[in-house]
UniProtKB/TrEMBL annotation, chains A, B:
It comes from the Bacteria. GO terms for molecular function: methenyltetrahydrofolate cyclohydrolase activity; methylenetetrahydrofolate dehydrogenase (NADP+) activity. Homodimer. The keyword Secreted does not apply. PANTHER family: C-1-TETRAHYDROFOLATE SYNTHASE, CYTOPLASMIC, C-1-TETRAHYDROFOLATE SYNTHASE, CYTOPLASMIC-RELATED. SUPFAM superfamilies: Aminoacid dehydrogenase-like, N-terminal domain (SSF53223), NAD(P)-binding Rossmann-fold domains (SSF51735). It comes from Granulicella pectinivorans. Residues 11-125 form the Tetrahydrofolate dehydrogenase/cyclohydrolase catalytic domain. This is Bifunctional protein FolD. Residues 155-318 form the Tetrahydrofolate dehydrogenase/cyclohydrolase NAD(P)-binding domain. Pathway: One-carbon metabolism; tetrahydrofolate interconversion. One of its GO terms (biological process) is L-histidine biosynthetic process. The gene is folD.
Length: 320, 320
């Protein structure tokens, strides 16, 4: 008997995102022939530097794909009621298919209430509970089947995970999938989608005992816990598919060397910036995997592409 | 070292249901002092014998607990539009806190659309996707914490499971819970609630490979697949808590003897009725469990009590 040693396959989020964007651009052109231009409104409250960068890059991508976009920038002092009015106006406008409220919002506004005020059919972030419920019940807008034909807009990060798996021909049905983390925007919806794709799904979290017992059995492991390099090589099954959702900034030189021993490119990056970005999965675990999403350039690279796809899906459902 | 042999604890659904009903009756009296009488409307379409029995028993329990109830019995020929009108009227009435559409409906009406037409705050069956989404996000109305204070009405069967576990002081947090079945009304919401109660949760289903590998590790095993005696003693961990949601009618004499060897009471019941009811878990598995819900007299006995509790919860949220 021969032991088969294979090189882990890098699941290139940037390339997959590019493919999705190309498809979305084609759909936008086709909608254009019917006189429909999908429209996205982004609400950016106050002056949070990171949020501004994200929003600018979303607006820029809209432009590239032919999606109309509008950026609303109310001041930090805006009240919940004023926000509700803003959202109501966007809900009423026929030219706006998607409404995105960039988070985090100032602490004096009621974020949950605002997210629930967005018309679910325009909820391109997939944060409305009715979309979470539909997602759990019947899969998401990108899936091929739907029990009711009702639109379930999925949150962008887990939707991106499913696109990576599907476009990389990684079998899901009948596989053992383990999700680390139970957040409302990643862990839980990822579990919902994997269950509907017929994986056997285990949701682990901070209260899980003997975590490695679960992770070592995973054919597909999704890590979304926000702890740098938490999943070590000893915790994964050789040949598994590793999906790393973590984006953690590491500023300690010894830690960086631990994650990337002898990696000159990372060392140089660290020397230049004083930090590097590391996922929740240790690079040594990637080395024994069958396939993995790198950080950066993996799941994170899909987010904006999925937002664009959701916007077009919403436009088609509303006006197509 | 001594091996501790304990007798499995029978989790008595009938007794637990009686306790819940007593509490609900007290709440109804307390609401009465504020001039509020909780009201439940039950829609029973056509003449399905089993449905009539269920509805009658729901209406009867309302009477016992002081809940106002109303039974609407449109003919089998009712259209989706006419049903929508009926539901809209009930949504508008302030004296009606809960609306229950008894299923199944005739095939010519759009069941999904009707269930989504029920005001989520009156959705005492917990079938509206917004309640499924809230349940996944933040737990259910019976739980002690809620992120938003928004009402999440949980489907009655999984809510009953949680009541059995909690009222029997069975620890959930940090335990390994395995749910067999991924239906929208039992498996998925049970998983949602167990995740929020901090169990590590695995959802298994027809596509799961090597099912026994999962079930044998379960501290809490919930079986909701509708296959008589499917979970055998070899498939469970000795001392586990077994929650049996199955209600399967067995009509074969040899099969009955296989489930209940030498059990004279069951044999007599079978001789009299030509069938007995068996859960999804084999009685031999109960024998090695730490605790289990019998069939009948387990989870099924909670359903109506939970419906009553949901009706009062809805009344308090709307008018309390």
């Amino acid at each position: 008997m021969e032991t088969k040693i294979t090189t882990p396959r890098l699941l290139d989020g940037i390339a997959i995102a590019a493919g999705i964007k190309t498809e979305v651009a084609a759909e936008v052109r086709s909608l254009g022939l019917q006189g429909v231009t999908p429209g996205l409104a982004v609400i950016l409250v106050g002056n949070v530097a990171a949020s501004e960068i994200y929003v600018r890059s979303k607006v820029k991508t809209c432009g590239e794909l032919g999606i109309y976009s509008e950026m609303l920038t109310p001041p930090d002092s805006i009240t919940t009621d004023e926000m509700l009015e803003l959202i109501a106006k966007l809900n009423d406008r026929n030219d706006i298919d998607g409404i995105l409220i960039q988070l985090p919002l100032p602490s004096h506004v009621d974020t949950r209430r605002l997210l629930e005020a967005v018309d679910p059919s325009k909820d391109v972030d997939g944060f409305h509970p009715i979309n979470a419920g539909r997602l759990l019940a019947e899969g998401y807008s990108g899936s091929t089947s739907s029990k009711s034909g009702k639109l379930a807009l999925a949150p962008c990060t887990p939707a991106g995970i499913m696109e990576i798996l599907r476009r990389s021909d990684i079998e899901i049905a009948g596989k053992n999938a383990v999700v680390l983390g139970r957040s409302d925007i990643v862990g839980k919806p990822a579990a919902s989608m994997l269950i509907n794709a017929s994986a056997t799904v285990t949701v682990c979290h901070s209260r899980t005992k003997d975590l490695a017992k679960y992770t070592r059995e995973a054919d597909i492991l999704v890590a979304a816990i926000g702890r740098p390099g938490f999943v070590t090589a000893e915790m994964v099954k050789p040949g598994a598919t590793l999906i790393d959702v973590g984006i953690n900034r590491v500023t300690d030189a010894a830690e960086v060397e631990g994650f990337f021993p002898g990696n000159e490119a990372r060392a140089a990056l660290f020397a230049k910036r004083g930090s590097v970005v590391v996922g929740d999965i240790h690079p040594a675990a990637f080395a024994i995997s069958g396939a993995y999403t790198p950080v950066p350039g993996g799941v994170g690279a899909l987010t904006i592409a999925m937002l664009m796809q959701n916007t077009v899906t919403a436009a088609k459902a509303r006006r197509g």
